Prior knowledge:
Blueprint: H1 9-46, H2 50-60, H3 64-79, H4 87-107, H5 114-218, E1 219-225, E2 228-233, H6 236-246, H7 249-254, H8 262-265, E3 266-272, H9 281-289, E4 295-303, E5 306-311, H10 314-329, E6 335-342, E7 346-354, H11 361-370, E8 388-400, E9 404-413, E10 417-421, E11 426-437, E12 440-453, E13 458-465, E14 488-490, E15 493-494, E16 505-506, E17 509-511, E18 518-520, E19 525-533, E20 537-545, E21 548-558, E22 565-566, E23 571-575, E24 586-592, E25 595-597
Parallel strand pairs: 9-13
Antiparallel strand pairs: 1-2, 1-3, 4-5, 4-7, 6-8, 8-11, 10-13, 11-12, 14-17, 15-16, 17-24, 18-23, 19-20, 19-22, 20-21, 21-23, 21-24, 24-25
Amino acid sequence: MADNFxxxxxEQLNIEQxxxxxxxxxxxxxxxxxxxxxYKEKAERLGTTVEALKEKRAKAKDSHITIxxxxxxxxxxxxxxxxxxxxIHRTIRxxxxxxxxxxxxxxxxxxxxxxxxxxxxxxVYVDAWAPVAEVFGSMGDKLWDFVVNVWEDFVDIIxxxxxxxxxxxYYIGSLGLFLWDVxxxxxxxxxxxxxxxxxxxAVSVALLASVLIFIxxxxxxxxxxxxxxxxxxRTKQEVYQTIEALGDKLSQAAGAxxxxxxxxxxxxxxxxxxxxxxxxxxxxxxxxxxxxxxxVRAYAVKINGTQTVxxxxxxxxxxxxxxxxxxxxxxxxxxxxxxxxxxQSLDIEEVGVLLGEIWNPEDAVRYIExxxxxxxxxxxxxxxxxxINSVEHATYQQQVKYGSRYVESSEIYEGETELxxxxxxxxxxxxxxxxxxxxxxxxxxxxxxxxIKNPVDAVYxxxxxxxxxxxxxxxxxxxxxxVTKKMLTSYFGSRNTGIVGATTNHLGLDIGVPTGxxxxxxxxxxxxxxxWQSGYGYVVIIDHGGLYETRYGHCSKILxxxxxxxxxxxxxxxxxxxxxxxxxxxxxxxxxxxxAKNPINYLPKL
Length: 606
């Protein structure tokens, strides 16, 4: 039985186009006949030929057939199914096409073969999704081609480097084998002639050594200092080593800061001969040490034309003068000099002197500033050789002291105070004209005094609470006010601090607070110790009666004395870090009949 099914959209469109073309061709033939008859009739009426009319018509470009053809082409274009569809529209049309194909398959009387079903579904797919699938398919193919090409290039590069490595290894191995063969042949040759070779080698070494010794015995170096010959040395190294070992001895012997630069100051001249009179190391040392009588060129600092000090170079002399000026009228922040006058003339002049007359620069500065080349004793008056008068316009700040205010508090005992807020200094800006002689102020005229910051008074609590009896109450309070658990840095009992000298059996309780924090007596009693003890540092011990006592260690300052009676809550010391301590804290011990007890069991709970 023949399969009956409707043609798809693409086939239907082709059928419509073929019928249109046939109809259009028929219309063309009819029009051609009508046009021939029209030309014949018009030619007879006008008395002309058909060819002439056609030529005239062609020039006018006014053909009804041409217009009809254009209209027919436009209608044909409109009849074509030209639709730009999105991916979503194509997917919807694909699903609808699959549903219609499914309905068609079910409508047939006999089942279709697998190939025909596949063909029906394929036509729907091609009509809806073929353009999209072709794009993705081409992308996949191009991506695969790219990956394959990259991989092939990578493999080629690896093979290239492997080939290079194998080639280099081959040549290195060949060279190694060649050298090994050469060494092996030499070894065999030496084994066969080792006695002869050794004899020749020993003789050659002996001859070479003899020649070198002979040449060195004829060779020496004449060394000189700035043109003055000092002696003859076998080697330059002997002079180098002597000067290096000489160190400060030369300066001490010459009485000045003298140093010899071998490369700059010492000249060597090679000499030959059998009897050269070579200096020993001791001769070189003595020659260099006692060169005080050598005449050298130096520079003198003259004050009022009088030679005062002599220095080794003009640069050093200028540095000495600048150092003196800086000491007396050096640059200072906020200071502008309006006048600097030397009372004496100051000059530098080149002179010829003995080496021993050169001054050490520090001694020269001291001598000009104080009149003495040595350090002045305490109370000894300076007598400067030069006087520098200066007038300066100075702008500086001066602190303004702050006061104290007290607020009465019933929480603090009478006679005690407690800081609420620290005071701050005020600041005045002062502009003044100051006259100095050698840096010492002689006169000051204040031009202006401006307050730029007001002082803020310190505020204290002043205790009004009646002082209790100075004896034990039987109850203990914390030695530091406002204690928290975070402040407890080490508890009673065994521990491992890692601090040299610190006990591993802690006999008290450590409260970590800043240095200077007040320490209060846990209870009233009598001070039995107030001073330094090994390990504790500064410590206070109070006897509370009833066999109880407390200890307060590592204090920075003690405020009570032995034998003094104190009341509970009295300020007895300040926190510190004295003795064996890793930081500022108060070490508290509570003892009963001499035995240390855990303070936590006796103090108020936190």
